[in-house]
Amino acid sequence: METLPDIPLPPGIRSRFVDGINGLRMHVLEAGFETRGRPCVLLLHGFPELSFSWRKVMPDLAEAGYHVIAPDQRGYGRTTGWDANYDGDLASFRLLNLVRDALGLVSAFGYRSVAAVVGHDFGSSVAAWCALVRPDVFRSVALMSAPFAGPPPLPFDFADKPATRKPEDPVHRELAALPRPRKHYQWYYSTREANADMHRAPQGVHDFLRAYYHHKSADWKDNTPYPLQGWTAHELAKLPTYYVMDLASTMAQTVAAEMPSVDAIAANKWLPDHELAFYSAEYARTGFQGGLQWYRCGTSGAFTAELETFSGRSIDVPSCFISGRQDWGTYQRPGVFETMRTTACTRMLGCHLVDGAGHWVQQEQPAEVSRLLLQFLKQAAARPGL
Predict the structure, then answer these.
(1) Whether the Cβ atoms of residue 145 and residue 359 lie closer than 8 Å to each other
(2) Measured between alpha carbons, how far is 239 from 245 in angstroms, rounded to an integer?
(3) Which residue in 70, 258, 269, 299 has the most C-beta neighbors within 10 A?
């Protein structure tokens, strides 16, 4: 590996590599490593972030007595061993293999179980499946910014009925047919062009990420989310353009229209330019395709059948949900937030919407996220058992 620049980390966090994790050489940020025997907390980032996104909460968790591990997940940052080719091994990015990555990492550190797995954005999906599939290892789960609906259901009670094909979802055709034609970002992210659109953004990777993070944060004043009534084109078109894009636009073009002013950038305290520069340097080096492969696994439907193996299962370890009050991610899939609280998670100890935070809740409001995580860890420890 080429010599990489130092990471601008706060005191108490170290950067290291662990070889042999399900075919990966995994880059990990670690806090609370000074003494052995601590309970472990695993932190899983989302898109387009890195383990670096946890830098503000890791010291608080370590100070409270935890060994905190935050990897660059498969497809991201300084972790290597994954295929960056659009036509490469898509199956390695499917959810159950990402669970295998997480399981392998905590095992490499000598843990038979961890106090909690915490996931943000797409990392929330991985964390949820960790808790669903291996509740003996992942003893509690905190989901952040992306609620969990449970496993996909198996077709039911159809043996004595005429065979029917699963109907095609009409919503994409209907979005494109709106008076203002639109498209869903996850299906855009699944296209061959999406990586180059962002990696070679006309404004450069740094300004692309600045606008992207701004657009999905509480700093963008039009982020005033509310529940949608259903998975229909009319309802989805109410989402901001970073979720339901104009049909002819790239993501780079979409967020460029919301680029903050020079003064706003200078005033930004939660992601100052020197910290953003680390993200932009990493993505300029790696591109975005590794993270985009995760979306392709979902939109293709190729791996739904293996997830249906767990149909009817719920998350039965203690769980909580944390999101920004100004985060549309809570509601982007209509009904999922409600399903998570009623059926998908049977031991939900709290749902918290943090004011003054959009999608990047652990970066925008780290003190409150640390407080809520430590409160949850204490509650979960007091209610052990499956």
Answers:
(1) yes
(2) 9
(3) 70
Tens of each residue's pLDDT in the chain, 386 residues: 568 999 999 999 999 999 999 999 999 999 999 999 999 999 999 999 999 999 999 999 999 999 999 999 999 999 999 999 999 999 999 999 999 999 999 999 999 999 999 999 999 999 999 999 999 999 999 999 999 999 999 999 999 998 787 888 999 999 999 999 999 999 999 999 999 999 999 999 999 999 999 999 999 999 999 999 999 999 999 999 999 999 999 999 999 999 999 999 999 999 999 999 999 999 999 999 999 999 999 999 999 999 999 999 999 999 999 999 999 999 999 999 999 999 999 999 999 999 999 999 999 999 999 999 999 999 999 976 54
Residues 29 and 79: beta-carbon distance below 8 Å: no
Indicate the Cα dihedral angle 106, 111, 113, 119, nearest 10°: -30
Strand partners, 315: 345
Query: Whose structure tokens read 């996931």?
Result: 119
Contact 190, 184 (CB under 8 A): no
C-alpha to C-alpha distance for 237 and 38, rounded to whole angstroms: 47
Give residue for tokens 């340097």: 281
228-233 CB contacts, 8 Å cutoff, 24+ apart: 228/331, 228/334, 229/334, 230/334, 230/335, 231/171, 231/333, 231/334, 231/335, 232/171, 232/174, 233/171, 233/174, 233/175, 233/177, 233/178, 233/182
Residue with tokens 């996104």: 53
CA–CA distance, 281 with 371 (Å, rounded to integer): 31
- Helices 95-108, 122-133: crossing angle, 10 deg rounding: 70
Domains in the chain, ordered, with CATH? 13-152+305-381 (3.40.50.1820), 171-292 (no CATH)
Does the pTM surpass 0.85? The reply is yes
Look up residue 190 and give its two tokens.
Answer: 């699944």
